[in-house]
Structures are given as C-alpha cells and as structure tokens.
Amino acid sequence: MTALLTRRTALASGLAACMAPALPSSARAGTPVLAPLKWAPRTRRVIEGLIATHASTDPDPARRPYAVFDWDNTCIAGDCEETLLHYTASHFLFALSPHDFARATALDVPARTFGGEFRTVEGHRVRFADLHADLCADYALLAARPGAPAADDPALLSLRSKLVFAYDAITATCDGDVSCRWIIRLLAGHDAAGLAALARASNTWHLGQGIGRETWATPATRPGRAGIVARPVLTGLRLTPEIADLQSALRAAGIEVYVCSASLEEVVAVFATDPDYGYGLPRANVLGVRMQWPGGRLGLNAAPHWPVTYREGKVRAIRNTQLRRHGHGPLLVCGDSSGDFAMLGGFADTKLGLIVNRLLPGPIGTLSAQAIAQMSAPDPRFVLQGRDDNTGEWRPSEQSIPLGHSLPQLSGPVPA
Fold this sequence. Notes:
alpha/beta, Rossmann fold, de novo design (two linked rop proteins), 2 domains, 6-stranded parallel β-sheet, two-stranded antiparallel ribbon, 14 helices, 40% helix, 14% strand, globular, disordered N terminus
C-alpha cells in the first residue's frame, strides 16, 4: 500500500502543471517537457517536439489543438472494465434480479454454438443456450441465499468461470458492439454513486494485486448443461505515470486532452477524473459507451444517438463532439489495440499516433509495422512505446516484454 500511495503522490504532483499558463512555443523549443521516467527516448523527443510546435495560448479552448487517448492498456496497464467484472463476479456484487440478469445476458447475443478454443475442458462444443441456462441457474441460486457467498462456493466459482467464458466467446465471435454492451449490462441496476464506489473498490483492489494470469474453471460438481469450462484471466492493474505526465504537459501547453474508451463512460471516469490516481481529467473530457439510466439506475438499453465507442464508433464519437467543437481532428492520438486503429488513422489533422506496443497482430500490428519502418524518420506518423507486461510498467525502449517471458521484442507474434 505504501508503494501505491507513493506512486499516486508522484502522479498527482504533476497535475499542478495543468494550472500553469502555457508558455509561448518559442520559449519551450528544445526544452524537455516530459520527465524521462520510462519513456523510449526517441518517442519522448518526438512528442516533446510536437508539443513545442503546437502549443497554444488561445484563451478559447475550442480553438486549441487537442489530443485523444484510449484508456484501457493505454492510460493504464490492464482493463478497468474487465477487472470490474472479475471483482463483481468474485464477490457477487451484482444489482440485478434473477429475471433481469437472464434478460441482460441474453440480449442481442445470437443463437450459436461456440467452437475453436471455446470448448469444454473435454473438447466438446458449447451452445450459448446451454451456457446461458447455467449462468441463470447459478445466479438464481446465489441470489436466493442471504449474505455474501463464500469464496469457494461451487455456484460462485461456476458463475464466474462461465461469465468470463461467455464474454470471451462473445467478444471473439460476435460484432464488437454486442460484446461491449454485454459486459456493461452485467453492471445494470446500480445507481451512479453505487457504481462509482464499486469501480473504485475494484480499481484499488486490483492495483494491489500481482500482474499475472490465472485460470477460472467450473467446479466438477457443477457441470450444468454446458459442461466444465475454463478460461485464463489476467490479474492486476497498474497506473502509468508517463501518461499522466504527458496529459499534464499537454494541458499546460494549451492542448486539450480527451479520453475515448470502449468501456462504460462512468466506469472510466472514476479512474480518469480522480486526482488520487494521478490523472485528474475533467469529467466532460471522458467519452465512452453510454447507456440509459431509467430511474437513476444503469439500464440495459443503449443511450440514443450515441455510437458504441469501439473501432469506427470512436471516430464517430470524436467527430460528433470534438470535431464539431474544435473544427478539426485531434493533433495526437494514443492507443494500443485494433480497437483504436480507426481512431489512430481516421483524421487528416492528426500529426502523430502513439502506440503502446503490445505486440498485437491485426490492424494495430500494421500500424506498429509502420512505426518500426519510421523509427529513423525525422517526422514519423506513428511511434511505439514499449512495456513490460510482467510488471505493467513501461520500458525505456520501443520493445516490449510479453507476459510470462523475459526477452524484449519489437514486434509479434508473441512466443507460446
């Protein structure tokens, strides 16, 4: 806990810079803007040059340049919404009735049979209808009991194993909008204050946990209709002081800072706006998935006229808000995954894309390859930043170390 508080204090100390008036860019040219910390040196120099060139003293925020950051695995190490699911499931802190839980977990999910890696431990294919029946049975049993279940309760272990199995399978096989809404609907029924308190408790608990991977498996005594399943679960969260410092430096230079996340907006805001975590962004600058709140409680239905902020949805959200406000696209975009691909390359005004190098394939791998090809260019379009996934901390290099490995690498695939 002492180490965590020390890091939070160090992060929060940088926020004072946000209140300082921006200096003319000429006064800052050639002057270090960012603390070295664990930046890849060239990446830091490129970003410092960008800040020096585009710093603004315009008194109207709408006329200033702006930067947009993904949140999960960009501003922090880990995913605050997925760890919130793990925390909620492990402590059975849901706020849904069994009837509403059944609705929430079935809504929008097409009837299908999962295959590939999404099989039982015995290798059998899993029908979603059977998986859903097991989820509902476990949930109803736990909801009917007084008090919190024991950590080793077979029904609890079955519920949480099949929740993460279902979420992973839906994410891999359904449209991204479906999986984004599915995980959020599990939080329905909480009011705003209760959800914020739950998210803060999850953040605090996971910040104190080791970074690693564990397996959640269905107990042999509760195979249910779907059978026994098992899924790997990533543990722990970490703050990223380099991002907090960058956001402070941008704001001090008159460059507005926004977050655009595929997680529920209110969950991200708990992390992004609380100075205790070191970021301290304005609430209005946090964009994420939005839902309806009937009667002041998180509901099951999407907010009207707002995109799911995932892939192209992030571009639409930025166009609908910041492009209209500022009259131009973002100066800087920061991301880590293919969910950020469209945002990183979707605006002609963007001068630089910062990619946290997670050694991922797919569209983000294509952008990472461009960054590698431009590593000696004086004015790159994309830059990489390495991370050690074993600690959640950045590395002073473009190379990253995959979880469970010790050797850094510049690009994927990650060794088995």
